[in-house]
Specification:
heterodimer, A: alpha/beta, Rossmann fold
């Protein structure tokens, strides 16, 4: 990494941290933990009749602390694989992933990772509140009821806390999934196309909601999406990936402040960002 | 009602999606096949049965449903006297199998590697003709209630093994994602997620197992496991002394008993099924 890049990264992390000054001291403490570093990571696996199929090839990027990194790339390029590697659910064949000074596997064992999957996967027998509390049950942690209440308030579901998932719309389920991922106050939030199945209006609403939540909590986030507009709207740093095996085509920073992004979708700067990403994807 | 609430709390105007989430058509679609089979069983089968008896196509061997009901009524004391030991042996078998299910569910949750063995066990026991079990077991066990209950347990093991195999697969769903993210132990996953996920499989398994046990008891009695009483014994005697009305009465009573047990199993499982709906 060049000196200029390092300086930019530091500046970026300072900006994002400044945006989260309204967060609690505990949150501010977690913000200082460090950046997510994907360091020359490769991953290959053995398919039934083909050993060593490469899914990820020499991927290298950094998501600064408290920033939102977005992975964009064609379908099946290995974005979700990269996300799973970042979560420590799989080990890279080559290279290294670190969050601050520790590995994702250690971070996961310390229950400091939140993961929202493509499918909300809510449990039908639990109410909305109990679904959000699930990570505490699974991680054998005491339930922080006031934080759960706060989270439900943030995602706009406090009125629905005692309802079952079957009574919710698709957008509401995704919000529950997001709240569940944030329940244990993770230092690293990983989102695998969480809004992929939603209509445009709901998606747009949830995008802004996500930005608001992340700014409030100061959580470092890595998100996978297919949508270039969504990437520009959400991302502080966007990583454009090639088709399988995925390599980094472009690392693109969006310097605009998060709270101004909702209204900036028709601006020249926004369109320029989109154009740059599209060009990289098409290249 | 739920739709109206959704529209209020989710004000972005997702009318199209909400309209498509109307549960009524899907519910109707689900209910149609659900009620079709019992309706056929309750209405069509007796009608065919009555027609076959009236047409005299099979001679006097087929006794119609009304004559059968009369026969049950006139022989009720004998039939009930023989039904009781069959039901008793079935209850013992069901109790043993429920314990096996509970232990087995825990074992497959904690050691899913045994699952393929369970599927194989289910196939092996399933392919072993139930009727040959009694003579084999009677070489080692005295005839009577314990032998009937043993055959009943072996008969019920087929759905239980299949159920456990299904439970192992369903219970693990999501553990590699959500469970892995929170580094959850197998036991903890089973307690909070896995067990609840397996309830539909458990429901079907228990509902299949109980009538299976009842049929197992009757087959055991039929093949000589019982020393004196039992519905299977009555069937054998009625057949070999050529009393078609009594044979039909016993068969009908066994069918009603089996349906009754299925009903009881459905009622027992209802609260759990309702909870995970």
């Amino acid at each position: 990494m060049s000196v200029a890049e390092s300086e930019h990264e530091v500046q970026m992390s300072i900006d994002v941290t400044a945006a989260a000054t309204a967060a609690s001291p505990k949150v501010r403490a977690t913000i200082r933990e460090g950046a997510l570093r994907i360091d020359a990571v490769s991953y290959s696996y053995d398919s039934g009749h083909q050993p060593g199929v490469a899914a990820v090839d020499d991927v290298d990027f950094v998501v600064p602390r408290g920033a939102l990194g977005v992975l964009v790339g064609p379908s099946g390029c290995g974005k979700s694989t990269l996300l799973r590697l970042a979560a420590g659910l799989m080990e890279p064949t080559l290279g290294r992933i670190a969050f601050g000074t520790i590995t994702p596997a250690e971070l996961r064992k310390q229950r400091r990772i939140g993961f929202a999957f493509q499918d909300p996967g809510l449990l039908s027998w639990r109410s909305v509140r109990r679904n959000v509390e699930l990570p505490f049950d699974l991680a054998k942690l005491p339930i922080d009821r006031s934080w759960i209440g706060e989270l439900l308030e943030i995602v706009g579901l406090s009125e629905w806390a005692d309802r079952r998932p079957r009574e919710l719309s698709g957008g509401m389920r995704q919000r529950v999934s997001l709240a569940r991922a944030l329940a244990t106050r993770p230092d690293l939030l990983l989102l695998d196309e969480p809004f992929g199945a939603l209509d445009e209006i709901t998606r747009s609403e949830l995008n802004l909601e996500l930005l608001r939540i992340l700014s409030a909590t100061g959580t470092t986030c890595l998100l996978v999406t297919h949508s270039v507009e969504e990437a520009v709207l959400l991302g502080d740093r966007i990583v454009v990936l090639s088709s399988r095996p995925c390599t980094v085509k472009l690392v693109h920073d969006v310097p605009e402040a998060r709270d101004a992004r909702g209204a900036s979708r028709d601006t020249v700067a926004f369109l320029d960002h989109c154009r740059a990403l599209r060009a990289a994807l098409a290249a | 009602m739920a739709i109206a609430r959704t529209a209020v709390a989710d004000p972005a105007g997702r009318r199209a999606r909400l309209a498509s989430s109307d549960p009524k058509p899907a519910r109707t679609r689900l209910l149609a096949p659900r009620f079709a089979v019992p309706l056929i069983a309750v209405c069509v089968v007796p009608a065919i049965w009555a027609f076959a008896a009236d047409s005299n196509a099979f001679g006097k061997a087929v006794v119609g449903p009304i004559a059968t009901v009369r026969e049950i009524h006139s022989h009720w004391s004998v039939l009930w006297l023989n039904a009781r030991p069959t039901l008793y042996a079935t209850l013992i078998g069901v109790a043993v199998l429920l314990v096996v299910t509970a232990i087995g569910a825990l074992v497959v949750a904690l050691a899913p590697r045994v699952t393929p063995a369970l599927a194989a066990l289910s196939i092996v026991i399933g392919t072993l003709p139930l009727i040959v079990l009694t003579p084999i077991l009677s070489l080692f066990m005295p005839r009577g209630r314990s032998l009937v209950a043993t055959v009943c347990v072996l008969a019920g093991l087929v759905p239980v093994a299949a159920m456990l195999s299904g439970m192992a697969r369903v219970g693990e769903r999501g553990r590699d994602e959500l469970g892995a993210v929170y580094a959850t132990s197998r036991l903890r996953w089973w307690r909070y997620v896995g067990f609840w996920q397996t309830i539909p499989v458990l429901d079907i398994g228990v509902r299949a197992m109980i009538p299976y046990c009842f049929v197992g008891s009757i087959v055991a009695e039929w093949s000589g496991a019982s020393s004196s009483f039992g519905l299977g014994e009555v069937m054998t005697n009625a057949l070999f002394s050529y009393e078609p009305p009594l044979l039909w009465a016993t068969i009908s009573l066994a069918a009603v008993g089996s349906l009754g047990l299925l009903g009881i199993a459905t009622l027992i499982m209802y609260p759990l099924r309702r909870r995970v709906r």
